[in-house]
Amino acid sequence: MNNSLSVRHLLGIKQLTPEDIQLIFHHAEKFKKVINQPIKKVPSLRDITIANLFFENSTRTKLSFELAEKRLSADIVNFSSSGSSVKKGETLIDTVNNILSMKIDMVVMRHSSPGAPHFLKENTNTVIVNAGDGTHEHPTQGLLDSFSIREKIGDLKGKKVAIVGDIKHSRVALSNIFCLQKQGAEVMVCGPATLIPRNIKELGVQVEYDLVKAVEWADAVNMLRIQIERQASSDKEVPNFPSLREYSNLYQLNNEVLIKAKNNPLILHPGPINRGVEITTELADGEQSLVLQQVENGVAIRMAVIYLLASHIKR
Amino acid sequence: MNILIKKAKIFQNGNKHHLRTRDIHIKNGRVLKISASIKDDSAKEITSENLCISAGWLDMRANFREPGHEYKEGLANGLKTAAKGGFTGVVSMPTTHPVVDNNTAVQFLKNNSATTVTEIFPAGSISQGLKGKQLSEFYDMMQSGAVAFTEDTALLNNTNLLSKALEYSKTIGALVYSFPYDPNLISDGQMHEGKTSTLLGMKGIPNVSEEIQLSRDIQLLKHFGGKLHVVAISTENSVNMLRTAKKEGLAITSSIHAHQLSFTDEAVSNFDSRFKVLPPFRSEADRKALIKGLKDGTIDAICSGHEPEDVEEKKREFTLAAFGISSLETAFSAANSELGQNYPLEDLVDKFTTAPRDILSIPIPQFEEGKVANFTLFDPTKKWTFNREEMLSKSKNTPYNNSKFTGKIIGVINRGKSSIDN
Q1: Do the chains contact at A114 and B315, CB–CB below 8 Å?
Q2: Which residue among A15, A70, A300, B343 has the highest number of C-beta atoms inside a 10 angstrom radius?
Q3: Which of A109, A113, A194 to mutate to test the interface with B (most CBs of B within 10 A)?
Q4: Torsions phi, psi for A43 (to 5 deg)
Q5: B193/A198 CB distance under 8 A
């Protein structure tokens, strides 16, 4: 196994090789042991400073990145703004360069615009970790989801994973698709047609509108959060489904669906869960649910990514 | 002014000099003599390898952002840029601040360009203030030199407005432009809807958003009459619809942006906002259909679609960046390079000169002794590399930096002036 990544930044899963993914998993396994020890820290990044720039609201991902950085002994600074500095007229390049002039080694960024980290890479000189760019990618989520399934059922080659819900507005979906396919897994997306991109089949995934059939088919189902706030971007746009009630009637994962499907797949959810909307509490907290492992693995995966990318930084 | 153009191949269908290599003597803005060989030591000689000359080219859609956003281009600089791109005439869009919706605004543009080599032919807005409520004074604006009426990207989204505009235009023989897209289907769209937009998680602009509007325009034209010019066509279906409409004998013409021939949606793969344009770069099938449409005459003209945008508007996150490229200086070279050797040069020249002039009812300058000299000089075979640093446009938002082109503009002659010595 190579001991360094083929990329200098984590912009998306799309840029990673299958070997990169295995290397990240390998290190994540080691770091998972570390965070389960009495002393949960390693001194690896004592001389590294990381800026967490969140231009879009986030609680969990930000917390997870911060923990990962602290467990690696990096110094960190945080910057949060929900798009307001952009509206005030300061450009993204300015904001980031201002922060970088304070000698920052790495930037973890969440931004509402697809490709914002790619744009930053072209225009600044720092190591970039994409913590979610609009409706494009959320690479560490894609990695931690695969890592969590893999812990339960081993190598993903030939395994079947269904992603259910709002595929169109989901960065989690796209990163999952790329990550799973690079490991040889089969991917299906399931949800109302208005929430599935029209050209998604060209990415080599199956499309299924019937949740029961998707559950019947899958070894694992990844239930995405239904984001009611993303359903209409302007007054001109008609929302993509009639109501949460109707959505739940069609796409809620519950016991009835499992019985009809005669299958009991692993259940993932990137959080935060709308309990009683896309999934029942019973299943979210049930035996097959990986929800809490996902959160724990998130820290390990992010430690692995940051650790591997930091090895490119001149020290 | 005393210019002697040496050994230039003349492009003017129907003229006795057509496709012949001639010397052309131009003095005080008029053609003095055309002959196989002319000598005049006092004249400034223009020579170039593979020199070709045609009637002055006319750009059917460009923006100079004056009044309002002069820092992006401005009239004076924009017209100089147009001259560099080979155009002796430009139809400017009315979407300025304030809007060109009255006679005074048209006069402002005309008066402020009275002595430039390249002439401006303003298009007025269809509705007052581009608000879609009330027709602008077409006739009054035409008196000062408006040549067409359009809402351009502000959109003709109201069928009642377009029907009234078409019907009213018959009264005075006005030409109506339409830039077809349905904003309700675009809503926040950033690029062509297809595999690439899916891979990038980017909201798509589906082909149907253009086609539904075009099909509506055609139906209204059929019913209400008038003359309609459709600009910025980008899809295969649009070309097919136009072909049928023309067969039916409707008074419809169309044009494309030259850069539409150069790229497909895959150009956007790296989130590079220099490739963000409206209409978006579409699929390879669409691009090929445009070439076919040019060949069979379904698409009448090629225009620059010049959209100068400063770096603050353009160099930013893709979804926040402005649409458009600064394209006056690349239109011909891009089209010529892409269409290449399999495309008859005569026909390409026609798309830039006679076709736009015919559509706009602007006379075609003639290669005849005594006539006004309004010509474009170009070398269709010259190989060169485009460099954004050498652009004349104030806005350097171009996807063509370092592109290798075949064919270059040598200069233009018009209004007793030449851009060649500048």
Answers
A1: no
A2: A300
A3: A113
A4: -90, 10
A5: yes
Q: Which two tokens stand for residue B179?
A: 């830039």
Q: Is B122 left (phi over 0), alpha (psi -120 to 50) or beta?
A: beta
Q: Which residues contact B131 (CB under 8 A, 6 or more apart)?
A: none
| Alpha-carbon gap, residue A160 to A188, rounded angstroms | 8
**Structure pTM?**
0.92
Facing residue for B201 by CB, picked from A92, A111, A114:
A114
> What is the distance between the alpha carbons of residues B216 and B228, in angstroms, rounded to a whole number?
12
Radius of gyration in angstroms for the set of CA atoms belonging to chain A, rounded to a whole number? 19
Task: For residue B123, list its beta bridge partners.
Answer: B148
Residue B85 dihedral angles phi and psi, to the nearest 5°: -85, 0
Contact at 8 Å (CB) between B199 and B290? no
Helices (H) and strands (E) in chain B, counts: 13, 18
Strands B2-11 and B21-27: antiparallel
List all residues 6 or more positions away from B83 whose beta carbon is below 8 Å from its beta carbon.
B116, B117, B118, B411, B412, B419
* Interacting residues of A287 by C-beta distance below 8 A, sequence separation 6+: none
Q: Which residues of B touch A (CB under 8 A)?
A: 183-184, 187-188, 190, 193-195, 197-204, 206, 270-271, 273, 312, 315-320
Q: Are A107 and A53 in contact (CB under 8 A)?
A: yes
Q: Report how far residue B299's alpha carbon sits from residue B304's, in angstroms, rounded to the nearest whole number.
A: 14
* B25 SS3 class: strand
**For residues A97 and A106, is the Cβ–Cβ distance under 8 A?**
no
Residue the block writes with tokens 């709308």 = A274
Question: CB of B397 within 8 A of CB of B98?
Answer: no
The identity of residue A128, as a single letter, is I
Please give the Cα distance from B109 to B92 (Å, whole number). 9
Q: What is the helix, strand, coil percentage profile of chain A, to 5?
A: 45, 15, 40
Chain B residues with CB under 8 Å of A114 CB are 190, 200-202, 271, 318-319
Instruction: Give CA separation, A133 vs A105, A107, A111, in Å.
Output: 20, 13, 5
- Output the furthest CA–CA distance in chain B (Å, rounded): 65
User: Is the distance from CB of B188 to CB of A234 less than 8 angstroms?
Assistant: yes
How far is the C-alpha of A156 from the C-alpha of A147, rounded, in Å? 9
pLDDT in tens, B211-245: 999 999 999 999 999 999 999 999 999 999 999 99
Query: What is the interface pTM, i.e. ipTM, of the complex?
Result: 0.90
Residues of A designated catalytic: 60-61, 88, 110, 138
CA distances from B16 to B8, B38, B351, B413 (A): 14, 18, 21, 21
Asked if residues B213 and B181 have their Cβ atoms less than 8 Å apart, the reply is: yes
Q: Which pair of structure tokens corresponds to residue B170?
A: 């018959």
Cβ–Cβ gap A115/B197 under 8 Å: no
User: Which H or E element spans position B301?
Assistant: strand B301-303
- What are the tens digits of pLDDT across the range B360-391? 999 999 999 999 999 999 999 999 999 999 99
Give tens-digit pLDDT for B66-125: 999 999 999 999 999 999 999 999 999 999 999 999 999 999 999 999 999 999 999 999
Domains and CATH numbers, chain A: 13-138+295-312 (3.40.50.1370), 139-290 (3.40.50.1370)
- State the nearest Cα–Cα gap between A128 and chain B, in angstroms: 15
Which residue blocks in A101-207 are alpha helix, DSSP H?
116-123, 139-153, 171-182
For residue A195, how far is the Cα from the chain centroid?
A: 18
Q: What does R_g of chain B's alpha carbons equal in angstroms?
A: 21
State how far residue B271 is from chain A, nearest Cα, in angstroms: 6
Give the tokens for residue A189.
């997306």
